[in-house]
Amino acid sequence: MKPLKKMETLLSKHVVHTEHSSSVAASEQEGPVHASHANILLHYTAQPPAPPAPPALPAPPTLPTSLLTSLTPPLTLPPSPPPLPPPTAPSFPIGKTALVVICYNRPQYLKRTLNSVLKHYHTGIDLFVSQDGRHAGVANAITDFISEAKGQHQIVVEHLQHTNNRQGRNGYEKLAIHFGWILQNLFNQRKYTRVILLEDDMEIAPDFFDYFLTLAPLYDQDETIMAISAFNDNGFKGYVSDAKAVVRSDYFPGLGWMINDRMWQEWGPKWPKGYWDDWLREPPQRKGRVTLRPEISRSFTFGRRGVSVGQFYDKFLGRIQLNDQKVEWNAVQGLDILTNKQAYDQRRKEDLDAAMLINLSVAKRLVADISFSQQYESQVQDFKIEYKSLERGGSPSFMTLAKQLKIMDSIKANVPRTAYMETMYIRLGGTQRRLFITRG
Question: Could you give the dihedral angle defined by the CA atoms of residues 285, 291, 297 and 299, in that order, rounded to the nearest 10 degrees?
């Protein structure tokens, strides 16, 4: 064959191959390629020559190890953040705890108290309502409460009834006898470890139960503590601000308080027939022991009508601030110092030493004028004012200062209300600063 003719033949074969390749490519999308088609492709497809390899790059120079070490700064990783603390779970003190609401003849007051208890109830505490006498309206209120607690909240409440209420010449004596009866029932017969007592004219704070449950182990282990109270007699609006503060007090407040079996074994056999709260404040019962109480009250009495016939209510009790925060007491730091008298007393001394001594006229203005208390001696943390006697003797007396500062002007068993080692404090309005009232 001639060369030209041979070239035309090859070109025609290439055209046929190109058209056939297009049809094969299309058929690959529709189905498998037949073996004969694959042979044709292998036979006619020209493979392009491989590109030439690029020339090799020269190796980088090798530096001595010592030089590399000196030129390369050490790798410093940022410190790992500390692990998050585990969530605090509610803790319960060892043994059984009961709350008992004491009532007599005020069904409307009782309903308000029981509603407050139910609203803020904490699991792990058994509920009792102890009725003195047979008042029908009170009995009906208790029956309704038991039904609501069990039906809507699955909380079991037990109704106890003290029917031997002919004893006692007045309300104070009847109340003391009722208290002794219920405490004997719960401690001696039912073997409770501790009991919280609440009267039927009181409301409680959202963290009332958490407060008691957290402090109960401290109470149980420290024999210098005779009770825990929810109440601050000088916890007036504008006079308190720290919802986490708890203090030792030589004065027993009552008005929502806890007693444990250790103290009942001591007090029970000689429980008084009247005026039980004043009896607890006397030296033979107190024996130098203290009551733990909060700065901001966890209980509030709304009862103008009662045994004390509204005594002090408008002047003092009605001014008390009820805590409205739900403090997570398990997370509060530093509560252990309450059981370390030496450390607690040392801190008290340091705070008093650091406080600025002022006179009565300045103290009155600090208490009455928020703007003045915020600006006066702003570099000073705390202030103190000193009394020279309780009532009679050196001037000024505690009673004089108390009346001028509008705090409780009351002394029981030679202890001013709320005092610890003859000292108490109130907060200055609008600040965290304290005004100590102390014996000079």
Answer: -40
For residue 385, give the CATH number of its domain: 3.10.180.20
Nearest to 326 by CA among 92, 90, 134: 90
List alpha helices for 332-427, DSSP H: 341-354, 360-368, 370-375, 398-405
Mean pLDDT of successive 10-residue segments in the chain (440 residues)? Answer: 42 39 36 36 39 52 46 47 45 88 97 98 96 96 97 95 83 95 98 98 97 97 97 97 98 97 98 97 98 98 68 84 96 96 97 98 96 92 97 93 96 97 94 96
Residue 127 falls inside a structural domain: yes
**Whether the Cβ atoms of residue 408 and residue 402 lie closer than 8 Å to each other:** yes
Rounded to 5 degrees, what angle do the CA atoms 347, 352, 357 make?
165
- Residue 296: CA count within 13 A, CB half-sphere: 21
Clarify whether residues 104 and 129 are in a common domain.
Answer: yes
**3-state DSSP assignment of residue 292:** strand
Q: Is 136 helix (H, G, I), strand (E, B) or coil?
A: helix
Q: Which domain range does residue 296 map to?
A: 91-339
Residue 166, classed as helix, strand or coil, is: coil
Q: Is 126 a catalytic residue?
A: no
For 108, the 3-state DSSP assignment is helix
* 128 membership: H or E segment, kind and range: strand 126-132
Query: Are residues 320 and 356 located together in one domain of the fold?
Result: no
Q: Is 78 helix (H, G, I), strand (E, B) or coil?
A: coil
- Structural domain includes residue 132: yes
Choice among 126, 220, 277, 278 that is catalytic? 277
Give CA 233 to chain center in angstroms. 21
